[in-house]
Amino acid sequence: MNGTTDKTVVEISNLSSFYGERQVLTDINLNVNYREIMVIMGHSGSGKSTLFKNILGLHQTSSGSIRLLDKEVSSMQQSELYALRKKLGVAFQNGALFSSMSLIENVELPLHEHTRLDKQTIRIMARLKLELMRLADFEDLMPAELSGGMLKRAGLARAVVMDPSLLFFDEPSAGLDPIASAELDELILQLRDALNMSIIVVTHELESAFKIADRLTVLDKGQQIITGTPAEILASPDPRIVNMLQRRAGNDVIDADAYLDKLTRH
Amino acid sequence: MDTSLNLSDYMLNRVQRLGMAGLFLFHSVQRIVSTSFPYQASMKQLAFVGARSMLVIACAGLFVGMVLALQFYDTLVRFGSVSLLGSAVGLSLIRELGPVLTALMVIARAGSAMCAEIGIMRTDNQIDALECMAIDPYRYLFAPRILAGIISVPLLTALFIIVGLFGGYIVGVLMFGVSAGAYFQSMNDTVLIRDLFMGFVKSVVFGLLIVWIACDKGFHLHLDRRGMYGSEGVSRITTEAVVLSAIAVLFSDYLLSALIL
Questions:
Q1: What is the spatial distance between Cα B245 and Cα B248, in angstroms, rounded to a whole number?
Q2: Residue B129 is nearest to which of A83, A92, A114, comparing CB atoms?
Q3: A240, A223 contact by CB (below 8 A)
Q4: What is the ipTM of this complex?
Q5: Which residue of A has its CA nearest to B127?
Q6: Nearest CA among B138, B115, B84, B137 for reference residue B246
Q7: What is the pLDDT of residues B60-72, one digit of tens each?
């Protein structure tokens, strides 16, 4: 790796976060390097979505530091945060497209807002990204007319239309069939290679996570259990990781009587 | 002890929420004078709040004017003062009924829709998406709506009043045979600039209140203490916005009348 590829684009140190009086993240430390795909994994309620919001400045941190592209996020003014966000792309779980706009209008929106390009150029740039996401034939459809997988890809097209240095993707595989999920995983890998992006993916899908990740970090009950390469995670002796991986392999054994007792308890 | 703690907690929350609503209005109004104000979005909102409400406002104005003329004629005829019918209908419409009923119609047609739309945008992460795209939601979503409310409601009020006066003319002049000259002359004699000013000020304030309450309720849906967030949350805040807007309009109507009269 050369000097550029060693560059750290995200540095999180001793991050803790609360919702009211409930602590949801405790002492998180995480670095993401240039052109690296970092997957944040964990069960529902593990704190991964809160971490996602903290990194983006959508939720106030209680303590610790978050540096994105060499800028400290937690102490930023709103105007500075907006300036930084122009260099980021964020794709939400459900696409979060604006229902009153067509697919291509959604993708064009950041370009209209942040550039002085003429309409024709903006249209061409938006079409390029839709082409990349294999959505070129659907540009005039409204979000309500798109399938779940298409919504996610459309959200991704909008997120990368400004060619960000850092891309965030919340739950790319959630709610998708295996084929659509595999296609999206391929797209994420292509984006990293074609556009030289660093990518942070939040997911609870193990198959998808191990397929795309350069490194993974696993959260459980707001705590960071482990961060490492897929090989390091697979070799971890931590019983929580072992348990998680056994579930991935479909090794869950359920005692039918105990399960029935659990369901019928008073 | 628990009750007093809960009460103080509740009061603190209400005060905090009021402060947030105030800041919400401040930021939105501040964005109206910003250099990069989205005029195209404002035109869209003007069409939604104003142009598309015209038919329903005109219908309401016509029937209110007709009912007013009917009621006033029945009363005035007992005192032999039917020549004052125009002034009674005119003053009622311009000072009170025009601004208030227009505002109530706008709440029902546009305020509720606006609140539900913003609430769905909140639950669907569309507002977070805007922020992540470095697009200021106050500038992009709320400033155009507030501007549309301030411009549209006075214009709709004027439409309501004009159609209402015509409704009064139909009943008073065409049905009951009051002289057309007396109808308009009495109106001309008694309606003062101050009355028009009162109607105008009220309609501007009502326009602001309606949009402010609707957008604020939708925008802060995620802060609901009862944890209702999805479709149930949107339904509840829409109901709350409609009720609160109606009360705010009626209360401010009294305050403004007392101040201006």
A1: 5
A2: A92
A3: no
A4: 0.84
A5: A96
A6: B115
A7: 999 999 999 999 9
